[in-house]
Amino acid sequence: MHYPLFKQFAVLFVVAFFSQALAAQHSVAREWNEALLQSMREDLARPHVQARNIFHFSVAMYDAWAAYDNEASPYLLGKNVNGFTCPCNNFPKPADVEAARKEAMSYAAYRFLMARFANSPQSTLTVSRFRDVMKKLGYDPRNYSSDYTTGSPAALGVYIAQCVLQMGGQDGAHEGNNYQDTTYRPNNPPLAVVAAGPDEGVDPNHWQALQLKTPIDLDGYPVLECNCLGRSYSTLIDSVDENGRRRFTGTQSFQGSHWGKVKPFGLKRQNRKIHRRDGHEYILYHDPGKDFFPRLDTLGGGGTSKDYMWNYALVANWSALLNPDDTTRWDVSPRSMGNVQRYPRNLSELSEFYDLHTGRNPGIGHTVNPHSGQAYTSKMTPRGDYIRAAVQYWAEGPNEETPPGHWLALLNYVNDQPQLVKKFNGKDRLMNDLEWDVKSCFTLGAALHDAAIAAWGIKGMYDSARPITALRYMATRGQSTNPELPSYHPAGIPLMPGRIELVQKGDPLAGPKNVNIGKIKFYAWKGPFAVTDAKTQTAGVGWVLGENWFPYQPKTFISPPFAGFVSGHAVFSHSAAEALSLLTGDVYFPGGMGEFTVKADSQFLRIEKGPNTDVSLQWATYRDAADQASLSRIWAGANTPFDDIPGRLIGDEVGIGAFQLAKTYFYKDRDRDGFFSYEDCDDNNPTVYPGSVEKCDGKDNDCNGKVDDVMPPCKG
User: Fold this and answer.
1) Tell me, what DSSP letter sits at residue 524?
2) Which domain CATH number covers 74?
3) pLDDT tens, 71-86?
């Protein structure tokens, strides 16, 4: 985002002060980690690109650390990775290994970040931040030498950064072309979101770009002074010209449709499929296929139309839960939230998993905190406040670092907890902060990178509709419940009393001369344009015409610029949760609970006033947090259940695979079972996974590396 000049100086002062404070508290790796996160917050909001940035950054840091280690093996330095070779000759061993590591890591991070974020919208601020960190650490930012054979740690760091950047130039991401896929062509014309629609001729089985405003040149416009308020304008940038000027055309372009071709870290060839659509090749890892992807028969309503209708109708139904005046109260503590026992395995099981009326998943909660031995304390909270806070918290992260950046920030939160024991997999020797920060960032970065490749490969191939297209499409056709009722259409939306109904005579929505009689109406959130002052107003919930329905998103964003199937949030979150569970050797957050508190009337919601009360988002396990992140996208109206569940299942596999490969770089000649892995769990029981109920049966039912660790302790 663009800042007025005086605000840039203010931000620079804060960054400088923050860097000084961190120097006394955190490792060099963490310092650069925080600099990366802040730069991601100011960069374009492209989750798949930022996941790649995190991984490449972690490679640069890890290789600079591992270059001086006797046991760990670098990932890229001296290796051939996916066809790219980074040669490495011998170099003198330093007298002070720790000092050499910190220097090499800093130069590797600095040179990588300077190059990768050179074209960021806030490049001036970003560059100043990176230089400031270097100066505070006592290093010369003007050192460009890469001749590491002299024994210079700085030169080694510069060389590693060069290798990582060169690898990125040929990994299939199209970085040199601003990450654009020149082969993708949308199947649908854009949807003008402020008009009723979509128009005739739209295929509800394909993604549809959104059209918001008339063309506008962003360069020279501080965001605070332009119609495209907020950082999300980046999702609508159509092109970057030869002079680097960004053009906002008001119409989205599909981001990352080619991402399945990006070179992965731990994704396996046996889990890869190659598909063709519209004459182009798509590479998919963990393809969920026909088990989860419904299509709407626009003429006869056959095939999987009923599944399609139910999924999107649930999204419309849950929109009514975004009610600031909701009197329903939930216990939002781990006592009642989380600990989902089993996920659906196909479309037919989704209706048993999601509660159509309450907005819940069938999590049974956790009776006892295994770290304290005490019961979790109930925390009753208004449902409308809780859902709205959770939606905003998980959207792009509380500070807008994008979903993968959010999990990097959560890693930092975990690492700061005094209860965390920094042992790899919870079993190895105790690590110092530097080693832990490097290895944990590398493991998580690998999981997030592979998650983006898996998710966006599927998004590109299936090219599925977002709820705003599907719901408006069905609503404009009519209702599909009863042929004897008015406005029947086989491709219409099913009626749900109190939620989805027909406009009747005398209805406030009937309009001039009863023009809207027989149309579909939703009882739902009234939309971002119902608010003119987000500091003092709420949109509220009420009856709206289905053809004008909006998700719970800001008016400058509305819906993501890529397909819904599968949910990126679900894949990112579950991949990260599995990686963190295995990394720490514990499925629980340190101390048995993670927490984020949203203060009442703190403007945290951004798009409207609220919440009305303090809201605590609490999670016992990493998977509980991932499940909440996944569910939040349905509450927001951005995804459906059929987007969500396969994303969770894919994320689980991706995170486990990334961890299993990452540990092979950290330790040489270790037996596979030298550390806890999910292969150590009860493989004969398909319902066993982290977070499930531990039993007194001599098995590790909840896959936390401990047998029969129940409260009270097992006897006999």
Assistant:
1) E
2) 1.20.144
3) 999 999 999 999 999 9
What local confidence, expressed as pLDDT, does residue 673 receive? 39
Determine the average pLDDT of the residues in 702-708.
54
* Whole-angstrom distance, CA of residue 16 vs CA of residue 10: 10
Same domain, residue pair 479 and 575: no
How would you classify residue 692: left for phi > 0, otherwise alpha for psi between -120 and 50, otherwise beta? beta
Residues near 111 by beta carbon (within 8 Å), at least 6 away in sequence: 157, 158, 161, 162
The per-residue pLDDT for range 337-368, each reduced to its tens digit, is 999 999 999 999 999 999 998 999 899 999 99
Are residue 348 and residue 443 in the same domain, yes or no?
A: yes
Are residues 585 and 462 part of one domain?
yes
What gap in Å lies between CA 241 and CA 246, rounded to an integer? Answer: 7
Q: How far apart are CA 434 and CA 497, in angstroms?
A: 58
Tokens 């208004």, located at residue? 382
Q: Which residues contact 543 (CB under 8 A, 6 or more apart)?
A: 507, 508, 509, 521, 522, 523
Inform me whether the pLDDT recorded for 17 exceeds 80: no
Concatenate the DSSP letters of all residues of 225-269 into one string: GSSS-SGGGGGGEEEE-TT--EEE-SB-----TTGGGS--SS--G
Report the number of distinct structural domains present in the chain: 4
Both tokens of 623, joined, read 């998977």
Please report, for residues 194, 231, 622, 711, the alpha-carbon distance to residue 392 in angstroms, rounded to integers and kept in the order given.
23, 14, 19, 35
β-sheet bridge partners, residue 643: none
Residue 702: closest CA among 716, 714, 715, 685: 685
Residue 287 lies in a domain: yes
Q: Among 154, 177, 200, give the residue marking a domain's end.
A: 177
pLDDT of residue 25: 81
Residue 242 included in any domain: no
Q: Give the whole-angstrom CA distance, residue 113 versus residue 263.
A: 20
**Residues 106, 107, 109, 112: what is their CA dihedral angle, to the nearest 10 degrees?**
170
Residue ranges of the alpha helices (H) in 282-362? Answer: 305-318, 350-353
The answer as to whether 83 is a domain residue is yes
Residue 243 lies in a domain: no
Peptide bond preceding 403: is omega within 30 degrees of 0, i.e. cis? Answer: no
Predicted confidence at residue 671, as pLDDT, reads 42
CB-based contacts of 380, cutoff 8 Å, min separation 6: 329, 330, 331, 332
Q: Domain check: are 48 and 158 in the same one? A: yes
In this structure, is the dihedral angle defined by the CA atoms of residues 169, 170, 175 and 177, taken in order, positive or negative? positive
What is the predicted pLDDT for the residue at 688?
Answer: 47
**491-515: burial string, b at 16+ Cβ within 10 Å, e else:** bbbebbeebbbbbeeebeebeeeee
The answer to whether residues 289 and 387 belong to one domain is yes
Pairing of strands 210-211, 191-192: parallel
> By residue range, what is the domain housing residue 704?
681-716
Residue 63 in tokens = 């290789």
Mean pLDDT of the chain: 88
Do 393 and 494 have their domain in common?
A: no
Shared domain for 428 and 366, answered yes or no, is yes
- The pLDDT tens digits of the residues spanning 571-609 come to 999 999 999 999 999 999 999 999 999 999 999 999 999
| Chosen domain end from 121, 146, 177 | 177
Residue 167 and residue 45 share a domain: yes
566: preceding bond cis by omega (within 30 degrees): yes
Q: Supply the pLDDT for residue 700.
A: 61
Element (H, E) at 426: none
Using CB atoms within 10 A of its CB, is residue 185 exposed (0-12), middle (13-18) or buried (19+)?
exposed
How large is the angle between the packed helices 622-635 and 641-666, nearest 10 degrees? 150
Helix 433-462 vs helix 47-66: crossing angle, to nearest 10: 150
Q: Across 454-505, where does the E strand assignment appear? A: 500-502
Residue 618, number of CB atoms within 10 A of its CB: 22
pLDDT at 40 over 50: yes
